[in-house]
């Protein structure tokens, strides 16, 4: 609202993963101030040869809805934005005018001249209107970044503010569920989060009175499950040619630590050139994947890993499996689900590193954070550490993530594995660093003769703390 109160023109770009709540946020904030609101038409609903005409027809309908005196559809985007200007010029000059254009990337169909027309509209008229606030929004995050925020063309340095909406944290997800009268334990909310992530729309599907198993069945496995076909809809609506993007997501789902760029190219068959770079950039910008630098590695060995819980669950448990409509209810205690739970819990912890650090009492200490894997060579045993927190106060936390329904008990063989990892790290880092083996788990550590290997413990409740 600070930008709304400014007495000068404002161009605001809002972006984030599809279904994350961008449209809801703007409509709730400015529903009493909208002078014009338009949403681009989803490409899923359009015929390939009629894209431009369909988008112009939809824009024309919105112009009429808001009072434009026009009877014919604009012939092109230059004419369409001219009509929008004419509509806005008739409004009260002393009133703040909010124009909201949602899903703008959908409107930029091939060879449509959309970006040029929008540049002309803003530079030639909009930027000079002190009472105009233009909000543009899109789920195709890379389009927003490339064409607006990081533009080197006519919109260079024109965006006054950008807002990236991230998925909800566990704390925010818990608050949303409470507002819906959903009463689940934190243990069950965590599992729900592991299955759908912090996407407000997905969480809004949860019905009061259902158990966790009933909820997951209703979302994924029932005959009318809300998310049964979401994977295809999601990527088909975001990208004009979605297959390469889905191929990358499917490949990254196979290894928790992810793959290098060259490995992705090799395993997906996508040529390691501009197209691959654009796809990786688009998926990263939309919060599906993460690029990270492994511990004590260089920039050339950057890894990409899948971080979207929905995609991870869908590809691991739903796609191509022919599950029954009560699958989760009938199998929630079956050991076959433990590998998914383990990986999904690690993923949730890695998206809540700030909360893990707060649980350790080092929230204000800067750090570099990443999972780490050393693959075995020439018969040597490999090694994996779920999360390394390399702190600026010369302490390194080696974090093990364990999802269990009780206090975690350390067995003798597991203690030996941990001590091997601890010793390797001590041998390979500066002697000025203190290395601490750290457990991140649900209900804490069961003390016994082997538990002393862990020096610090972070529990489920810490993950639910609000972001500082």
Strand order of the largest sheet: 2-3-4-1-5
Q: Average pLDDT across residues?
A: 92
Identify the quaternary structure here.
Answer: single chain
Helix content: 40-55%
Radius of gyration: 25 Å
Distance between the termini: 22 Å
**Which strand-content bin applies to the residues?**
15-25%
> Uncertain spans, ≥5 residues at pLDDT below 50?
none
CATH architecture of the largest domain: Orthogonal Bundle
Major pleated sheet: 5 strands, parallel
Indicate the structural class: alpha/beta
Number of helices: 21
Q: How many domain units? A: 3
Overall number of strands: 15
At CATH level 3, the topology of the largest domain is Arc Repressor Mutant, subunit A
Helix and strand topology:
Elements: H1 2-5, E1 10-16, H2 22-30, E2 34-39, H3 51-65, H4 77-89, E3 97-102, H5 104-107, H6 114-124, E4 132-138, H7 141-149, E5 161-165, H8 170-179, H9 186-196, H10 200-204, H11 212-221, H12 230-238, H13 243-252, E6 259-260, H14 261-268, H15 274-285, E7 289-292, E8 303-306, H16 309-318, H17 327-331, H18 338-350, H19 353-359, E9 367-374, E10 383-391, E11 395-402, E12 408-409, H20 412-428, E13 434-441, E14 445-446, E15 456-458, H21 460-463
Parallel strand pairs: 1-4, 1-5, 2-3, 3-4, 11-13, 12-14, 13-15
Antiparallel strand pairs: 6-8, 7-8, 9-10, 10-11
Helix pairs in contact: 3-4, 4-6, 9-16, 9-18, 16-18
């Amino acid at each position: 609202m600070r930008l709304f109160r400014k007495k000068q023109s404002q161009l605001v770009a809002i972006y984030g993963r599809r279904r994350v709540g961008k449209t809801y946020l703007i409509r709730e904030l400015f529903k009493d101030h909208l002078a014009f609101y338009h949403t681009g038409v989803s490409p899923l609903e359009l015929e390939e040869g009629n894209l431009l005409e369909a988008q112009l027809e939809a824009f024309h309908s919105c112009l009429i809805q808001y009072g434009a005196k026009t009877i014919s559809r604009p012939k092109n985007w230059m004419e369409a934005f001219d009509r929008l200007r004419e509509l806005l010029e008739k409004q009260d000059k002393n009133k703040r005018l909010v124009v909201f254009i949602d899903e703008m990337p959908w409107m930029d169909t091939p060879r449509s001249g959309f970006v040029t027309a929008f540049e002309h509209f803003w530079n030639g008229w909009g930027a000079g209107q002190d009472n105009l606030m233009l909000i543009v929004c899109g789920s195709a995050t890379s389009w927003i970044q490339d064409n607006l925020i990081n533009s080197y063309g006519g919109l260079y340095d024109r965006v006054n503010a950008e807002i990236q909406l991230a998925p909800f944290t566990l704390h925010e997800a818990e608050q949303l569920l409470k507002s819906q009268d959903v009463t689940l334990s934190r243990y069950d909310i965590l599992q729900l989060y592991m299955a759908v992530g912090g996407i407000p729309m997905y969480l809004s599907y949860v019905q009061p009175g259902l158990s966790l198993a009933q909820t997951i069945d209703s979302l994924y496995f029932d005959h009318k499950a809300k998310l049964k076909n979401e994977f295809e809809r999601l990527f088909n609506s975001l990208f004009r040619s979605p297959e390469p993007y889905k191929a990358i997501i499917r490949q990254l789902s196979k290894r928790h630590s992810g793959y290098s760029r060259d490995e992705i190219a090799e395993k997906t068959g996508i040529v390691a050139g501009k197209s691959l770079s654009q796809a990786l950039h688009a998926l990263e910008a939309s919060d599906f994947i993460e690029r990270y630098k492994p511990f004590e590695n260089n920039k050339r060995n950057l890894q990409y890993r899948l971080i979207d819980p929905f995609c991870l669950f869908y590809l691991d448990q739903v796609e191509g499996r022919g599950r029954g409509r009560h699958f989760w209810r009938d199998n929630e205690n079956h050991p076959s689900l433990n590998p998914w739970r383990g990986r999904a819990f690690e993923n949730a912890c890695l998206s809540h590193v700030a909360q893990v650090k707060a649980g350790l009492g080092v929230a204000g200490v800067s750090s570099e954070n990443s999972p780490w894997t050393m693959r075995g060579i020439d018969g040597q045993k490999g090694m994996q550490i779920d999360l390394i927190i390399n702190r600026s106060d010369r302490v390194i936390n080696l974090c093990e993530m364990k999802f269990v329904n009780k206090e975690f008990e350390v067995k003798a063989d597991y203690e030996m594995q941990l001590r091997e990892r601890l010793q390797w790290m001590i041998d390979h880092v500066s002697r000025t660093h203190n290395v601490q083996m750290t457990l991140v788990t649900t209900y804490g550590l069961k003390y016994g003769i082997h538990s002393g290997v862990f020096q610090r413990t972070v529990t489920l409740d810490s993950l639910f703390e609000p972001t500082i």
